[in-house]
Amino acid sequence: QTLISLILFIKLLTKIKKNELIWFILINILIIYSHNLGVIWVLVLALFSLTLFLLKKNYHQLFIFGITFFSIFIFCLPWIYIAFLQTKEASHSFWLLFDPKASLKEYNGLFWYSEGKTFLGQIYYRYFFQLSFFILGLGLGSTFVKYKKFIYLSFIFILNLLVIYLFSALITPVLHPRYISYLVIFVIIFNFLGFHFLSKLFRPAFYLLFFVYFFLLSRIIFDTYQGLNKIDYQKIAQIKNRIIYTDESMAILPCLFYSLNCYFIGDLQKEPIYLGVRQLPNIAKVDSWDATSDHKQIAVVYYDSQKQRFLSELLDRNFSEKNSISLGDGLYLSEFDQN
């Protein structure tokens, strides 16, 4: 849908044809009704085209495009109203959090759907994302010096990234691979331009980076099909004689499914409402890590990036880690014994 909309949009910028204009209206109405960020996509196209014609003082096309986008938004008012209500509710309780620096890593998902920061612990993922950004930047830059007929694509792509970032910072966090996937077509185009430009600029570097890029990509594809990013919660059932604790609201329900000895640490009422844990009154819970002192042997389910958050609490209570296993996707299960 995005590709069709983009092709029609670029053609209409050059020459307006009635049948293409009708198809452009229809495809963008479909995009708004079928994609979470469809409104942002159409809004960016509107901002770009209206600004372009205003700067060119082409008031005839400015009027036509103004009527076109006005028509699209009028036909989509019922859904836009619903989306507004959902956005308003999500701004108070949503599964995503926005961090001005850390959230930038979510753009990694444009190169490979990896839930953003998930695989950064694997060195070949880091190299792949770094190389991908380099090739993407090369492709974007080439549209300003060599492939100027693609320069409109660069502005549209950059404007989308900027609007999504600002929307996440000021309204509701939506900067996540599953929401920005409609921009992948731009990455494919600019990667092609980047490699093509590099081959003309310095062919040995092209051969080297092209080989490294697809070597890393093949490794990532292999990992994906091996189920690297799938969590195996069944391993929790192996813990028989220990109380299992977790302060991860995403992990408490699977933990309870595989163990009757699983407890949530913290206040469930402070967790996001969309997770569902607040609606389950029978979840076993304790207020703080102080409760762990009642047992000599415990286990903890946690994300590796959050381990330091509770480790000092257990060390203060004379616990030491005896064993740790990966459940997948950065989630771990560790056993602790009190000295």
Which features does this protein show?
single chain; 339 residues; alpha/beta; 6-stranded mixed β-sheet; 6 strands; 55% helix
Describe the protein in words.
This protein is an alpha/beta fold and 339 residues long. It is built from 12 helices and 6 strands. It has helices at 2-14, 18-34, 38-56, 59-75, 77-90, 123-145, 151-170, 177-180, 184-201, 203-225, 252-258, 307-316, and strands at 243-246, 262-265, 285-286, 297-303, 319-328, 331-338. Strands 3-2-1-4-6-5 form a 6-stranded mixed β-sheet, with helices on both faces. Helix 2 runs antiparallel to helix 3 (38-56) and helix 3 runs antiparallel to helix 4. The model has no long low-confidence stretch (mean pLDDT 87).
List strands and helices in order, with pairings.
Blueprint: H1 2-14, H2 18-34, H3 38-56, H4 59-75, H5 77-90, H6 123-145, H7 151-170, H8 177-180, H9 184-201, H10 203-225, E1 243-246, H11 252-258, E2 262-265, E3 285-286, E4 297-303, H12 307-316, E5 319-328, E6 331-338
Parallel strand pairs: 1-2, 1-4, 2-3
Antiparallel strand pairs: 4-6, 5-6
Helix pairs in contact: 1-2, 2-3, 2-4, 3-4, 3-7, 6-9, 6-10, 9-10
